[in-house]
Structure formats: structure tokens, C-alpha cells
Amino acid sequence: MDILTPDTGLFIFQVVAFMLLLFLLGKFAWKPILSGLKEREETIENALQSAEQAKKDMEALNADNAKLLAEARQERDKILKEAMAAANSIKEEAKEETSKITAKMVEDARASIENEKRAALADVRTMVASISLEITEKVLRKELSDKNAQETLVDEYVKDLNLN
Amino acid sequence: MKNSRTNFPNLLIISALIALFSFTNSSNLLAASDSGDEKKEGGDTEFIMHHIADDYQWHIITLGHTHVTIPLPMIIYDHGEFKFFMSSDFYDEHHEPIVHDGFMISHGKLVRAGAGGHGDDHGAEAGHGDVEEAGFLDLSITKNVASLLLSVVIMLVVFFRIAKRYKGEVAAPKGLQSLFEPIIVFIRDDIAKVNIGEDKYQRFMPYLLTLFFFILFNNLLGLTPGAANLTGNIAVTLCLALFTFFITQFNGRKAYWMHILWTPGVPLPLRPVILVVEVIGIFTKPISLTLRLFASITAGHIVVLSIVGLGFILNSMVVGVVGTLFSVVITLIEILVALIQAYVFTLFSSMYIGQAVDDGHH
């Protein structure tokens, strides 16, 4: 059969053409393609890994944030409580102070009123005494103008002395 | 929307090719059956063998009785000197072979014209008896060689263009690259890495890729209308098989040769027998590679042409219509075969190489 006999000319051309193809494609096509593919696969692998890492980091960050938030909330509550307590105590103190001051003022007022009263009473007493003396002098002058009255008075005094 | 717009011209080209394919074949057949009418009643199958075989000119189409052919250059190395002709020099205006410069084309082969034809350009028809073939080397650009060179150019253009996309920045594949990249990755991951080994496969990747795409491109080119039957030619498949053969032998490690020459794990008396079997095995591998590709591609072409030819041979319109439809189905199967054969050849090559480079620790 003719088609089963390899043709020499075609065989030679095939060898030459295939070697040429192998050389040219190997140098200018397969080499860049294979290295490009490898590079891209590595890039994708890296990108996936870093994405995974970023996800993990993000999760950790979120957890941290939640923790921080909880802590902050606690802190806030604590501060609030303390502030409230402080305010209360200040209020209490102020109240106490006020009542003390008020009490003292009342006391002072009372004392000064007492003093005034005493002074006023003393004045009144002095005045009454002097007025009584004057009245007594006037009465005595009038009474003792006659001799009988003088004697009656002395008698009375003596009577009083005896009684004592 | 964008996709359908870009796909539409491609679809158009594919359907045009399929239409052209049936058209070219039918018109060839029409011519064949026309000329065969008077001589053969039983049917003319010569056109099939003519299509399968190589030719000195590229026959595109026959319109009526006009043959549209591209004459191809002929190069003959005769006694230390090169002679250049065009294949049209060897045919007269009626497409009958004539003797030119001491040579003539007889039954699709270039032969030296017999004693009667020496130096006679208008030479009388040399009979089959007085032709001698020896004494010169026929390096003509035949239809197959032209097709081979065309496929080389196509491959260089395609893969250089693709390679450009891999230089520079890392980018997502697009266009032609998207079509070929999965195939390249498949050959790397599922053929080379699996059969040769993770650590040694890189060295053989250029060969395996070139081999796969050379077979694939030429299988598919062979299915286009009017094209040559390159991968269905035994010289081509033999050449490819010999590449695999030599690469395998030159990369054979100690374990490989030990396995052939002194097979471990076999009883001593049997070892010489195994040796003979193994040595035969070295040579049956390239032979099986050669014949598998040659036979499947050639068979595919014969089947398609036979089915198309049935209508003309039986002179029946119905058979012709059914046969043409059926041949379309067969052609689709041929496209599958084109892929499978390229895959199988590459797979077996990588398996043989893998056996050779194996270090022996199973």
C-alpha cells in the first residue's frame, strides 16, 4: 500500500519543521506562558492567603473592638456611678453645712436678741431705778415736809427692823 | 449582550466552513463520478485514496470540468545539485502528466522518466515499465509539506500572540488566551505532572505542548475543506513517534534500563525471556504511536468521504441527502477524534518518558 510507505521528503520536512517549531515555541511561547502561569498561580495563591489572613485579622479586630466596647461601657457605668455618689455626697454635705449654718445663725440671732433684751432690761432697770429715786425724792421731800410724817416713817422703819 | 455579539462572527465562520466542506467534497465527487461514469459502473473510490495521499499540487475545487489548483514548488536533489520546478510544469492543459526535465509524476509519485523521455519536454507518455525511482531525493513542497508549513506559521502566530499576554503584569486571561490556557494547564497538570512526576516534568513541557498542539492543529486543519491530510500521513506520525522514542531513550535512568535488561522481581530463568519481550517493547511503543494516529485520522477521512460518496455511487438523491447529513455527524465526531488523538499521543508520550525518568522507587 502506497499510503503505508513513509515519504522521505515529507519526513525530512517534518523533522526540520517540528524541530524549528519546538525551538521557537519553546523559547518564545512556552517559556513565558509557563512562567507566567506559575507566577499568576502564585499571585492568586498569595492573594487568597492574604485575604484569609485579612479575614482572620478582621475577626480578631472585631473581637477586640467588642471587648474594648464592653470595657468602655463598664468604665462608663463605673464612672457614672461614682459621679452620682460624689454628687450625692456633695449634696448631703451641702445640706448639712447649710443646716449647720442656719442653726448657728439662729443661735447667734437668739444670743444677740438675748443680749439686746438684757441690755434693754438693764436700761429699763436703771431708768426705773432713777425714776423711782426721783419719785422717791420728790415724795420724800413732799412727805417729810411736815414733822409727823417724818416720825411715822421712822417708826415704821423701826417696826420693820424689830420684825427682822 | 457583549458575548453574543463577539460570538456571532465566529459562529458564522464555523458554519461557513462546514457548508464549504460539504460543498467542496460534493463537487469533487461530482467530478469524480462524472469522469468515472463511462469506465466504472460499480463506483469510483479512487478519489478517496487520492484525498488521503499526498499530492504535488493543491487541489481546491473542481467547478464543472475546471480544476482549481494551486501549483506548488518542486525541489529535487539530483546527483549533488538542486533542481527547482513548479508542479504545473508536469501537467499539460488537460491535467495529464507530462515529462519535464527528465522527470514525471506517475501515480502521485515523482519518478525519473524512462530512456524514451530523456530531455524531451513534450515527451511521449512514459509507460509504467520504463520508470526508475532511485537516484534522486524528492524534497518538493507537496500539499502535505505546504500544509505543514502553514500549520507551523499558524502555531507560531497563535502562540506568540498568547505568550505576549504573559509578559509583564499578571492579568486575567482573555481572548485566544482563554481558549488555550485551560488546555495548557490540563497538559501540565493532568498529563505531564501525573505521568512524569512533580519534580521532573518541567523539562519535557515544551516538547509535550508542541506535540499536542501540532497534532491538534493539523488534525483540525485536516478537517477543513480542501486541506491536506497531514496527521493521517505515516511519515508525519512516524516522525513524531520517533521524537518521543529518542527523548525516552536519551532520558532513560538506571532504573529504566535495569527494568528492561534485568527485570527485578522475576525468577532468574525467566529473565532472558523478559529481556527479549522488554527490548521488543521499546520498539513497539513508537510503532503503536505511529499507527494509532495515522490510522484514526486516515480512517476518519475515509469514512466521511465514503458516506458522502455513496449518493454519487448509487446515483440516488435520497442516499445523497441522508449521506451528507450523516457525514456532518461523522465530521463532528472527527473533531472529537482530533482532540482525543492529540490527547492520547501526548499522554502516551508522557507515560513513556515518565517510565524512563523514574528513579525506581515505586
Please provide a written account of the structure.
The complex is a heterodimer of chains A (about 160) and B (about 350). Chain A has helices spanning about 10-145, 145-164. With about 160 residues, chain A is an all-alpha fold. Chain B is mainly alpha-helical and about 350 residues long. In chain B, helix 4 (about 175-195) packs across helix 5 (about 205-225), helix 5 (about 205-225) packs antiparallel against helix 9 (about 315-355) and helix 6 (about 235-250) runs antiparallel to helix 8. Mean pLDDT of chain B is about 80; it is low at about 30-40 and about 115-135. The interface of A and B includes residues 6, 17, 35 and 36 of A.
| Order of the strands making up the biggest sheet of chain B | 4-3-7
| Quaternary class | heterodimer
**Pair of chains with the largest interface and how many residues each contributes:** A-B, 35 and 47 residues
Please tally the β strands of chain A and state the result. 0
pLDDT below 50 for ≥5 consecutive residues: which ranges of chain A? none
Structural class of chain B: mainly alpha
How large is the share of residues in beta strands of chain A? Answer: under 5%
Q: Separation of termini of chain A?
A: 189 Å
The major β-sheet of chain A equals: none
Question: What would you report as the Rg of chain A, rounded to the nearest angstrom?
Answer: 64 Å
Using the alpha-carbon principal axes, give the shape of chain A: rod-shaped
Mean of the pLDDT scores of chain B?
80
Give the class of chain A from helix and strand content and strand pairing: mainly alpha
